[in-house]
Amino acid sequence: MQRFLDTCSYxxxxxxxxxxxxxxPVNSLLIILFLATTLLRFSYPVFKQNARSYPVLLFSVLLFxxxxxxxxxxxNKNEAWLFAERKLSLVIFPVAFLIxxxxxxxxxxxxxxxxxxxxxxxxxxxxxxxxISFFFFNANSDVFFYHNLSEGIHFNAIYLSMYCLFGCVFTxxxxxxxxxxxxxxxxxxxxIVLLSSKMVIALFLLVSLSYLILKIxxxxxxxxxxxxxxxxxxxxxxxxxxxxxxxxxAEIKSDKxxxxxxxxxxxxxxxxxxxxxxxxxxxxxxLSEKKAWLTGVGTGDFQQLLNEKYEKSGMYMGNPSLGDxxxxxxxxxxxxxxxxxxxxxxxxxxxxxWIIWLWAKTISGNHFAxxxxxxxxxxxxxxxxxxxxxxxxxxxxxxxxxFVVNNKIQTNSNKQLSSP
Length: 420
Hints:
Layout: H1 2-18, H2 24-40, H3 44-53, H4 55-73, H5 77-86, H6 89-99, H7 105-136, H8 146-150, H9 157-173, H10 181-195, H11 198-214, H12 220-239, H13 242-253, H14 272-290, H15 302-312, H16 335-365, H17 368-380, H18 390-405, H19 407-418
């Protein structure tokens, strides 16, 4: 019976990895089945041994406890509960992986392969829909870029870019597809360019350079040449892609003076960076006004307080008759600031300690893919609330839990990859 449950848990883990690109209800159902199957084979001695070996996983449970504390501090209990519901993976995946025995090397590679293939298929479908709109329904060429492209599969372009980025990382670091690996890598890189997230493009370059420097057993001269070629290639791609070029130029040419203003009008010309800076100012102002630096203002109230700040400062709040909500509902666009705003410095400290502990695991085990996962998420959290969206936190905690428990397999895989 236990062997049967282990097999079911493994296949469900594969299904969960492949379902991140699917609608949230489908992914959530598979996660529930995965957890239920692991609980059926619960063995206290195994759980106790794994908990002693991988205590870092239980630390994420502390993060969830602080989320529940934020619920207690909130006036809007319903919104606080929805916030906590999105964070349930902080408990689900660590507990599930501590119950299960480690996967074999072959099983781990199958899980990663299923994830990468699902991302490739989703992107092929997405690009096909854009091509049909362009060639048969006379859509503008912008349909191939950013949110215009990803909305065809009802996905956030930035999050899908991250999925593509780690499709590239897993393909390279674990040699998932042998001869077809270059094709998969090039296609996912192409999708990253089309999805046009400036931060993810920068992260792609950072991860690529890290791979060239740390993982490829070649001469220093060749590594430098390859790194310069990679940088030059992306400069050329950006220069010859009008939509992408426009996004970068918009930041360069944006009016930086709006950052210091206290009052705005409905058509204030924000860029991505200036808008985020204004939102961060509003968030810090709320913390000072409420004297809530230690505990935050509550997970259910911070968004309403932000909305009130937006409205008071004159930012565009939408037109109900047009179904346009303007800046209403815009989150802090910085995970670190959101931690402080919703859960206080205690919440931020808990997150930082957890990440440091996870970093220690990657360094001790020489886990390249895991290290790049932490690096990318830490950087992306500077401009996005990545861990407050279902498609962000579930994805992140799943792979963190998977890599922590299967650290010996990771180490062996990396040694094989780095050997000349």
